[in-house]
Amino acid sequence: MTDIRTLLLRDGMEVMVPMAIDKVRDWSEEDRQAAAIAAADVIACGADELWEHNPKKRELPRGRVTSSIAHGLAVLAYQPGGIDWAGGHWCVTPHDGCPKRSAR
After folding, report:
1. Which tens digits make up the pLDDT trace of 9-45?
2. I need a surface site. Which of 21, 42, 54, 71 has the fewest CB within 10 A?
3. How many Cβ atoms are within 10 Å of 25's Cβ, its own excluded?
């Protein structure tokens, strides 16, 4: 069963990822790759801190971690087939079996 916090984070990504996709649209593949590596590093170091309630115990601000998740998903949306995460789907090119395609 998916945790309510994960669902809330995913709902936030429904807004943040399209904005991040727009931001990286004109970036080169190399720049996107560098952004993905940077995002992965922040996520690996700070994703567990999203659930920390005491801000003094967090090494990274929640906003930095959530922004990194959004940017990571945005970069992955440019890959063939896009990206599925926590029940959400993001892609920039229509493809077979695309859940967004049937909603369009």
Report:
1. 889 999 999 999 999 999 999 999 999 999 998 888 7
2. 54
3. 11
Q: Which residue has the tokens 């077979």?
A: 96
Whole-angstrom distance, CA of residue 96 vs CA of residue 81: 8
CB neighbour class for 74 (10 Å; exposed up to 12, middle 13-18, buried from 19): buried
Would you say 59 and 66 are in contact if contact means Cβ atoms under 8 Å apart?
A: no
Token code pair at residue 94:
């229509």
